[in-house]
Each structure stands twice: as structure tokens, then as C-alpha cells.
Specification:
Rossmann fold, about 220 residues, globular, single chain
């Protein structure tokens, strides 16, 4: 199946077996980040072989010299409009993953910074749960490259606003707004509060969505979301 992004006109080649049958599906254009919707029974045609292998960009606007291959990007298709979550936690990753799954999110767990950045390159996650020690304890090669938190802080406002970032820490109390502002995250959760994580995140994410509801609706009407 060949699809043309309505926003940037990039042509994307998708293996037919990756498209859910009889269900709505959506994915982000790897070039501009625009969300493309596919309805049941909808079809696209064309002879394109996809994006150029020599010049394209990822979900964060970084130049990538690699042909787009949907098989390498497992979160490009999420049916039922469910949100996706990147869990960078180390020891407590399973606990966080269970909580996020319980509230209807699709979860991706990673073991190190390299895996996290690779997944972030090709998918704009709705929620990122990050342990404050993850970058240091699970660094890839010690080369001084930006970690997960550094990468999130460097995102442009248009992309960063679409994400909800949770920082798990021992140093600050849960929902300390000043600590969250200092770390450029949306919410801080003290490690001692992980047993109450579901209740905390349901409330925090709902407040976040309500805060940006009018703004996001305006973007949709303008064809920019």
C-alpha cells in the first residue's frame, strides 16, 4: 500500500500485512509528524517505492539516511486510537508497564538509552516514563551523546507539547510542580509513590489533556495535527 501524506506530500510505502483489516488505523508521517488516518475499506494506490533512501527525516525532524521500512517501526500502527508509552525504567519497568497497560495504553519497554533513542526517532510517543538514573545507568557507550532527557529537552515546542513526560525520582516529592519545571517534564513521581502510579497518572494526564484541549482542537481545524 502506498500512502501520500496530506501535509507534506511524502509518499510512504507500507506492507499490506501491517495494515489492520476492518479497523481504523493511524500512524505518524516519518517526515513531518502529521497523523495519517486510514478507515476500514479505504485503499491507496500508486507505484511509489516509499520515501527516498538518501534524504528523509524522522518524527523529530532529524535527517535520516535510510529508506523508510514500516517493519522496523512497530508503533507506526496503533488501532482504536490508543496512546503509546515509552518506558525507560530499568528495574521497575514491569511495574510501570502493567499500570500503563491497565489504563489502555500501548507500551514499549527499552533496556538502554540507545534503544530508547532509536524508538523515539521513528515514533512520537504520547507518554514517556523515565527514571532519573536511566540515562547514566543504561548509557550506550559513554561517548557523551545526549540521553533520553536531553533529547526530550531539545525537542521543538510543537512536538514536545504533544508528549506527556513522567520523571521518576528519589529527590523530589510526587507532583512537585517546581521540580517538574526545573527538569522540563510534565510531572515528577517519587519512587515511593509507584504503588499509586495508576491513580496519579490518570489524574495528571486528564488535567494535561484538558489544559491543551482548545489548543489541540484549533490545530486539528487548521490541519496541523
Amino acid at each position: 500500500m502506498d500512502i501520500v501524506c496530506a501535509s507534506c506530500k511524502a509518499r510512504i510505502s507500507i506492507p499490506d500485512h501491517k495494515v489492520p483489516k476492518g479497523k481504523k488505523a493511524s500512524f505518524l508521517c516519518p517526515k513531518c509528524g502529521h497523523r495519517i488516518q486510514i478507515s476500514p475499506g479505504e485503499s491507496f494506490s500508486g507505484g511509489s517505492v516509499g520515501l527516498s533512501s538518501s534524504s528523509t527525516t524522522d518524527s523529530y525532524g532529524t535527517a535520516v539516511k535510510k529508506k523508510y521500512d514500516a517493519a522496523d517501526k512497530p508503533f507506526d500502527f496503533v488501532d482504536d486510537g490508543r496512546q503509546t508509552v515509552l518506558v525507560c525504567m530499568g528495574k521497575k519497568a514491569d511495574v510501570v508497564a502493567r499500570v500503563m497497560t491497565a489504563i489502555g495504553r500501548v507500551v514499549k519497554q527499552v533496556d538502554n538509552v540507545e534503544q530508547a533513542l532509536l524508538n523515539m526517532r521513528y515514533h512520537l510517543f504520547d507518554v514517556v516514563v523515565l527514571d532519573e538514573g536511566f540515562d547514566e545507568a543504561h548509557g550506550s557507550d559513554g561517548s557523551g551523546k545526549p540521553g533520553v532527557l536531553d533529547t526530550l529537552c531539545l525537542l521543538g515546542m510543537a512536538l514536545r507539547r504533544r508528549m506527556f513526560v513522567v520523571l521518576v525520582t528519589d529527590r523530589s516529592r510526587t507532583m512537585d510542580r517546581m521540580a517538574a519545571l526545573e527538569q522540563s517534564v510534565d510531572i515528577v513521581v517519587n519512587r515511593s509513590s509507584l504503588d499509586e502510579l495508576e491513580k496519579i497518572l490518570v489524574l495528571a494526564i486528564k488535567e494535561h489533556e484538558q489544559f491543551y484541549a482548545v489548543f489541540n482542537e484549533s490545530l486539528k481545524k487548521a490541519g496541523k495535527a
